[in-house]
Amino acid sequence: MPHSALPKRCVIADDVRRSRETIGKWLRECGFECRLAQNGRLAWEMIKEQPPELLVTDLEMPELCGLELLEKIRQADDESIRKLPVLVMTSLHDGQTLKIIQKLGGDGLLQKPLDKQATFSVIRDIVSARYSLQQTMHPGDEKCIKDRGVISPTLRRLLNKVAENEQ
């Protein structure tokens, strides 16, 4: 991934230290300056303080989950925050996640466990076409995206919230 085609700053939000550190390491190899947050609330504070060019956030986190963070970003007064490309990552394998992320204005979905080259590919797509929704998965995971699967309590609550907003 060429350094010149990449944004310079990124916030990575994940409550699992190993995940955020791994993604941070990968992105630093490509020239990103990464700030790491252990939850959505801290990520939101970092974004307000100095808007990055990319946010990579986990879906399920304490204090402010990834979808709530995405909503705050898309409703922000500051246009540079509102237009921030957001890549959501999750270990959930249900058919609703991508639809909800897309509905809330997310730019991409990564399925955990993450693959370095697949992550780079999605980031490259987001950088080149800022609001083009992409997804990536590991070989053999195709059916996990298509099937409904089990919906987590966090996702169920957010599905209900989105449905209420449509009425």
Distance between the termini: 43 Å
Mean pLDDT: 79
Give the percentage of residues in beta strands: 15-25%
Order of helices and strands: EHEHEHHEHEHEHH
Can you tell me the CATH superfamily? Response regulator
* Helix/sheet category: alpha/beta
Looking at the structure, the CATH topology is: Rossmann fold
CATH top level label: Alpha Beta
C-alpha-based Rg, rounded: 15 Å
Helix content: 40-55%
The total beta strand count reads 6
Query: What is the number of independent domains?
Result: 1
- Strand neighbour order, sheet with most strands: 2-1-3-4-5-6
Shape: globular
CATH architecture: 3-Layer(aba) Sandwich
Largest sheet: 6 strands, parallel
Number of helices: 8
Contiguous uncertain segments of 5+ residues:
131-151
Domain Response regulatory: 9-127
Keywords: Phosphoprotein
Modified residues (4-aspartylphosphate): 58
Protein name: Response regulator MprA
Give a description of the structure:
- Residues 9-127 form the Response regulatory domain.
- Pfam families: Response_reg (PF00072).
- Keywords: Phosphoprotein.
- This is Response regulator MprA.
- The chain is of the alpha/beta class and 167 residues long.
- The chain has one domain: 3-Layer(aba) Sandwich (Rossmann fold).
- It contains eight helices and six strands; from the N terminus they run E-H-E-H-E-H-H-E-H-E-H-E-H-H.
- Mean pLDDT is 79; it is low at 131-151.
